[in-house]
Amino acid sequence: MKKVTIALCAAGLLALGLGVGVTAAQTASGAFLRYTAETTTWVPYPGLGGELGVKEAVLYGDPAKPGLYVVRIRWPPHVMSRPHSHPEDRFITVLKGTWWTGTTADWDPENTVAMHAGESMLHPHGQVHYDGARDEGAEIEIVGLGPSTLINAHPGTPDFGKF
After folding, report:
1. Of 90, 94, 109, 77, which is closest to residue 140 (Cα–Cα)?
2. By the 8 A CB rule, do 84 and 143 touch?
3. Is the pLDDT of residue 20 over 50?
4. In three state form, how does the secondary structure of 77-135 look?
5. Residue 138 has pLDDT above 90, yes or no
6. Rounded to two decimals, what is the model's pTM?
């Protein structure tokens, strides 16, 4: 796991050094970027997630395009994603609250593992998982190399659920 984490960090630094993934949320001039509570723009997560109160803030890059991206997600209580995977490795750090994670194709919010503020988890590419918040909201930060997409483990079912 340590080798995967180091490789992901190295790839991210390489992408930054090559200037890959510059979007409107960044500067092409190499300027430093600072994000505060006042300057971070939160928007509803696309689709059903946003309807259920999930919010996201893209801090760097564009997850839909090649290159490094950094995204924050705010989970309201009692909302989780349904089982899915991603085509790329993703490194997640819990910033606030308790984030709950499941690593099976069976959606069972009551049978998830708690991750607390300051803790991190690697989601390996192609591995089915689901996650979100139980009794309290949570905020996470996701770092990955795009392009990214959500691949539903059960096509035709909702990507998110409230319980």
Report:
1. 94
2. no
3. no
4. CCEEECCEECCCCEEEEEEEEEEEEECCCCCCHHHCEEEECCCEEEECCCCCEEEEECC
5. yes
6. 0.82
The full set of domain ranges for the chain reads 2-162
* Euclidean distance between CA atoms 1 and 12, whole angstroms: 17
Question: pLDDT for 63-88, tens place per residue?
Answer: 999 999 999 999 999 999 999 999 99
- The token pair at 83 is 């089982």
Q: Is 48 helix (H, G, I), strand (E, B) or coil?
A: helix
Considering only CA atoms, which of 131, 120, 21 is closest in space to residue 65?
Answer: 21
Taking the mean position of all CA atoms in its chain, how far away is CA 127?
A: 14
Task: Count CB atoms within 10 A of the CB of residue 11.
Answer: 16
Residue-level pLDDT at 14: 36
Q: Report percent pLDDT > 90 for the chain.
A: 79
Is 97:141 a contact under the CB 8 Å cutoff?
no
The label of the residue with tokens 């139980």 reads 134
Domain at 2-162, CATH from 2.170.150.40, 2.60.120.10, 3.30.210.10, 2.60.40.10: 2.60.120.10
Encode pLDDT of 74-128 as tens digits: 999 999 999 999 999 999 999 999 999 999 999 999 999 999 999 999 999 999 9
